[in-house]
Amino acid sequence: MKSIQIAPSILALENLNNLESELYTLEQAGANIIHIDVMDGIFVENKTPFLDPATIARVKSATTLSVDVHLMVQEPEKYVDGVISAGADMISLHCESNGNHNETIKKIQKAGRKAGIAINPTTNMEKALPFYENADFILVMTVVPGRGGQEYIEVVNEKIQKLRALFPEKDIEVDGGLKQATVHLPINAGANIIVSGTGIFNTQNYKETIQKMKQAIIIGADHAGYQLKEKVKQWLEEQKQSIIDVGTNSEESSDYPDFAKKVAKSVSKDATKKGILICGTGIGMSIAANKYENVRAAHVTSVYEAEMAKKHNDANILCLGARTTRVETAIQCIEKWLCSEFERGKHERRVEKIESH
Asked: Model's pTM, two decimal places?
């Protein structure tokens, strides 16, 4: 299961005079990667100041985050050496550009950097098939490259889904039109690195924006809960929630502790995540999940219980029984749990006592 990473695109900065302070703010706000677009005015119509490796080096020297350089250029081989010398950690080149891409990928990797292959929205994904296997990550453009502030192209979701099915272990990065209102689309399709420019820089609070972009519901079920899981996922997608499905993906017999472990471990490590676990009764899932630190898994059978699970116990995993709870009730429970707030006060003291034992 790939964690969601947010990569602010500094192409969206109005000017570079405050670059160092902006990078510090992004780092403190929880950004994972700094994304840099290099444009030559040929592959795309615009040029960027990052065509100069010295500007990339300036970014690298001002942050501890990984620097991700996206080469939107016609001849990537001409720029790779300079970008490597500037300190880039990730370098992607377009399958539509000129040159021997597999050799360029090897050169980047030989320098100890991650190499990516990028593909435009209108390009058939088969065009990049000779390069996907060798690349460390795949960058899918979700707008026409070269200009900021465009709307997300939803038909690209199908391409992301196919790539995730082909390469379950690779990072899939998406770039273009991404903000709080659209980030669930590529995540639900299978992307895990989210590039956002104006979606972050046009907001007042970078930290709040980045944390909301990272929010996701990790969902898992055994064979008994599979059908209910699929119905819950459909509802969550309609609510524009980001979802990470850890399985199972069939009604073939499976062991519920395996899925409880996957969800609980993810929620335990990341406060921006919530979990939903479904088995026959939900009881086994809650017992298994509560073995993990910082996990408060609540087994509920009614809307009131779901509400109290959040308000009084700050439950971060909801456990449901597919054989004991109707679909409509299960969805109502999830809805109430998601919209309820922890009341703190005496309840915070009690939760702290639970976690201290």
From this structure: 0.92
